[in-house]
């Protein structure tokens, strides 16, 4: 069985266009969520985490020029620009050739180009672009991947599933390098939907806090390049040790009452990595700041004997970025390991879940080797992955 | 009130996709949640949508839902009290 | 590890086949909604939540019910059963319905029971809830039915003992075009090995 190394990564979000920009912002406790009044998105002002559209177009235009592509920037949708740019940034400087048959692209997205369903956007692109495999084809063509991208659309655990699938395919020898990219937009479609669930915070996203009142939506794209081969590079190498998914089998939107199934995913991830709960130094959890999700997570963490492990949710910084979440929050978790730094869980002040959690209240250094990343989503799905310094 | 109750029984069945139940089966005084029709959290949210869509009544605090949606009759009473003339 | 398809259901063109036998065929139905309801009733399924599902979930739910429904005797732990599905249109059929409910600001009534179905993996959720299946689960999107991807993924799960048995299939619906193939994959020997060739054959032959 091969090892799986994470040899490169990139994040594009409200906090910046590179991983280092994003991590630096988080280190300074800069929150990327702001109150937005945009009637095209929602009836009322909402806390949202939006990518700088002007900067995105500027960087994407520069990329088109650099690649000598005589195509208008308007030929690409906003989400396609995010994916293409993020993948480009993550492949920069690597000797991974997309044209190689042993290289695969895996995409994670919950809604793809869903903004193209809006009246004003309907004529801008071919209706086919609403199909996720067509989104995949556009990205594939730009970068010249030989293999058709594999697309995973599985609610809020899509990102972790994409990373997990990639690690399993590399370990089993199907591919040598896999580029994993997860992305989603903030859209009227998703905002209205979560609003009908009364799930959106009107002000601040406070994961695990007593006064948490819902999630803040965010848009982002994160990319990780996984490889069975360790590059001769400087810096600490992170491996993916293992992971698992489970289903609550309880309700299609409400989480499990007991947290047993998320705990099972965590335990299976540990067992599959030849580790036990004592080996986990830090948890990058899901923490959406809805009353039920955070409560369920606290139960799951307790069941897996992890209540003393320092834990945070990055959603206080980035909002809930859906298909991007599993990827960007994993990247942040890995950087925490590399820098031996526990990042404060933004938005948390007063403990607000029934089982005790060791939520990180202050950014500080700590000796960290192993990170557990978890996620849960609509449809009762749960996922857990373990990252470890080599 | 009886007219409103009968109207509501049909509307609730339609809004909640309770296709295998007829309006006559719905006892206006039986609890909607718990035993009764076995409604869940999504149904509770749908009833909030029903009130707004069909009666123009917006429920500010979803926690009030438990009282308002206890039964068809309590829903009818709430509507009668709050409906915009 | 040798894997086998121990049971399958195929639903397409108003026809239902289970383990090589025609189970149901209605010439005269005009739409999917009536077809699937009629199938539900003929099979004497009793599950009120069925009526709340969107068309995609109804399709996938029934496809699974046809091969799981009868086996109340569990010879496998539900934590060790996986569900691996794929389709082409994701949840676009329901996406369009949700978009309709929000396009007119003067009649803006987004519905949580519609919105929840705007994720393709909800089909998996519905199947898991009914049968208390708690193991590995994932939903892939491919332009056309790609059996090799499903075989590779399921084989990896079973060979590494992440699951003991797996529901694997293609559940596609967009408007009135629908097609579902649901297979139960186990390592008990049956007449039909679990491979891309056999999956393709089931779909093409029927």
Describe this structure in words.
The complex is a heterotrimer of chains A (390), B (85) and C (206). With 390 residues, chain A is of the alpha/beta class. Chain A has two domains: 5-227, Thiolase/Chalcone synthase (Peroxisomal Thiolase, Chain A, domain 1); 238-389, Thiolase/Chalcone synthase (Peroxisomal Thiolase, Chain A, domain 1, 3-Layer(aba) Sandwich), CATH 3.40.47. Chain A has ten helices and 16 strands. In chain A, the strands form three sheets. In chain A, strands 5-4-6-8-1-9-16-15-10-11-13 form an eleven-stranded mixed sheet, with helices on both faces. A three-stranded mixed sheet of chain A has the order 2-3-7, with no helix packed on it. In chain A, helix 2 crosses helix 3. Chain A is globular. Chain B has 85 residues and is mainly α. Chain B has helices at residues 2-15, 41-55, 65-68, 72-82. The two termini of chain B are 16 Å apart. Chain C is globular and about 60 Å long. Classes of the chains: A alpha/beta (390), B mainly alpha (85), C alpha/beta (206). Chains in contact: A-B, A-C, B-C. At the A-C interface, helix 4, strand 5, helix 5, helix 6 and strand 9 of A face helix 3, helix 5, strand 5 and helix 6 of C.
Give the helices and strands, then pairings:
The complex is a heterotrimer of chains A (390), B (85) and C (206).
Chain A: E1 5-12, H1 19-27, E2 34-36, E3 46-49, H2 53-66, H3 78-91, E4 103-108, H4 132-143, E5 150-152, H5 158-171, E6 177-184, H6 188-196, E7 217-218, E8 220-227, E9 238-247, H7 260-272, E10 282-285, H8 291-303, E11 310-313, H9 315-318, H10 325-339, E12 341-342, E13 358-359, E14 364-365, E15 370-377, E16 381-389
Parallel strand pairs in A: 3-7, 4-5, 4-6, 10-11, 10-15, 11-13
Antiparallel strand pairs in A: 1-8, 1-9, 2-3, 6-8, 9-16, 12-14, 15-16
Chain B: H1 2-15, H2 41-55, H3 65-68, H4 72-82
Chain C: E1 4-12, E2 15-18, E3 21-25, H1 32-42, H2 55-68, E4 81-87, H3 92-102, H4 112-115, H5 122-131, E5 137-141, H6 147-159, E6 165-174, E7 177-186, H7 196-205
């Amino acid at each position: 069985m091969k090892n799986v190394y994470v040899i490169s990564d990139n994040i594009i979000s409200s906090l910046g266009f590179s991983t280092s920009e994003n991590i630096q912002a988080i280190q300074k406790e800069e929150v990327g969520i702001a109150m937005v009044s945009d009637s095209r998105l929602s009836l009322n002002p909402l806390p949202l985490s939006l990518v700088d559209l002007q900067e995105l177009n500027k960087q994407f235009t520069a990329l088109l020029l650099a690649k000598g592509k005589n195509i208008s920037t308007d030929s690409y949708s906003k989400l396609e620009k995010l994916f293409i740019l993020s993948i480009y940034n993550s492949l920069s400087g690597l000797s991974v050739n997309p044209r190689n048959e042993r290289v695969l692209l895996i995409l994670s997205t919950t809604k793809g180009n869903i903004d193209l369903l809006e009246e004003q956007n309907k004529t801008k692109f071919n209706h086919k672009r609403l199909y996720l495999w067509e989104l995949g084809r556009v990205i594939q063509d730009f970068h010249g991947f030989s293999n058709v991208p594999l697309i995973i659309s599985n609610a809020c655990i899509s990102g972790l599933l994409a990373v997990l699938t990639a690690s399993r395919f590399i370990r089993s020898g199907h591919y040598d390098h896999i580029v994993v990219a997860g992305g989603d937009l903030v859209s009227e479609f998703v905002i209205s939907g979560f609003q009908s669930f009364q799930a959106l915070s009107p002000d601040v996203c406070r994961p695990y806090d007593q006064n948490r009142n819902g999630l803040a939506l965010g848009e982002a794209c994160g990319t990780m390049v996984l490889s069975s081969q360790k590059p001769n590079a400087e810096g600490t190498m992170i491996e993916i040790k293992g992971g698992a998914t489970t289903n609550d089998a309880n309700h299609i939107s409400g989480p499990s009452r007991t947290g047993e199934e998320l705990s099972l995913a965590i335990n299976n991830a540990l067992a599959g990595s030849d580790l036990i709960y004592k080996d986990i130094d830090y948890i990058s959890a899901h923490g959406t700041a809805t009353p039920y999700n955070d409560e369920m997570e606290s139960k799951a963490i307790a069941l897996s004997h992890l209540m003393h492990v320092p834990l945070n949710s990055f959603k206080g910084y980035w909002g809930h970025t859906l298909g991007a979440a599993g990827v960007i929050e994993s990247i942040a978790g890995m950087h925490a390991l590399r820098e031996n730094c526990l990042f404060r869980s933004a938005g948390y002040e007063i403990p607000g879940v029934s089982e005790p959690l060791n939520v990180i209240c202050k950014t500080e250094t700590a000796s960290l080797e192993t990170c557990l990343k978890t996620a849960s989503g609509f449809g009762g799905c749960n996922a857990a992955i373990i990252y470890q310094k080599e | 009130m009886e007219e409103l109750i009968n109207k509501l029984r049909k509307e609730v069945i339609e809004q909640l996709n309770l296709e295998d139940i007829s309006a006559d089966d719905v006892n206006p005084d039986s609890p909607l949640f718990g035993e009764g029709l076995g409604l869940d959290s999504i149904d509770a949210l749908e009833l909030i949508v029903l009130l707004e869509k069909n009666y123009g009544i917006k429920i500010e605090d979803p926690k009030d839902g438990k009282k308002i949606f206890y039964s068809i009759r309590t829903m009818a009473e709430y509507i009668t009290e709050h409906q915009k003339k | 590890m040798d894997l086998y398809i121990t049971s399958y259901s195929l639903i397409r063109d108003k026809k239902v086949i289970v383990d090589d036998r025609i189970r149901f065929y209605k010439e005269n139905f005009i739409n999917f909604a009536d077809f699937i309801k009629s199938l539900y009733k003929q099979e004497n399924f009793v599950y009120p939540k069925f009526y709340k599902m969107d068309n995609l979930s109804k399709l996938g739910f029934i496809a699974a019910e046809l091969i799981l429904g009868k086996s109340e005797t569990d010879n496998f732990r539900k934590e060790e059963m996986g569900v691996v599905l794929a389709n082409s249109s994701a949840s676009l059929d329901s996406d369009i319905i949700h978009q309709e409910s929000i396009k007119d600001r003067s009649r803006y009534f987004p519905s949580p029971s519609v919105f929840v179905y705007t994720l393709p993996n909800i089909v998996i959720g519905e199947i898991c809830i009914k049968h208390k299946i708690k193991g590995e689960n994932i939903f892939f999107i491919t332009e056309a039915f790609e059996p090799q991807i499903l075989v590779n993924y399921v084989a990896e799960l079973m060979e590494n003992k992440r699951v003991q048995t797996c529901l694997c299939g293609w559940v596609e619906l967009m408007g009135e075009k629908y097609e579902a193939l649901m297979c139960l994959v186990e390592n008990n020997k049956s007449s039909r090995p679990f491979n891309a060739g056999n999956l393709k054959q089931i779909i093409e032959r029927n």
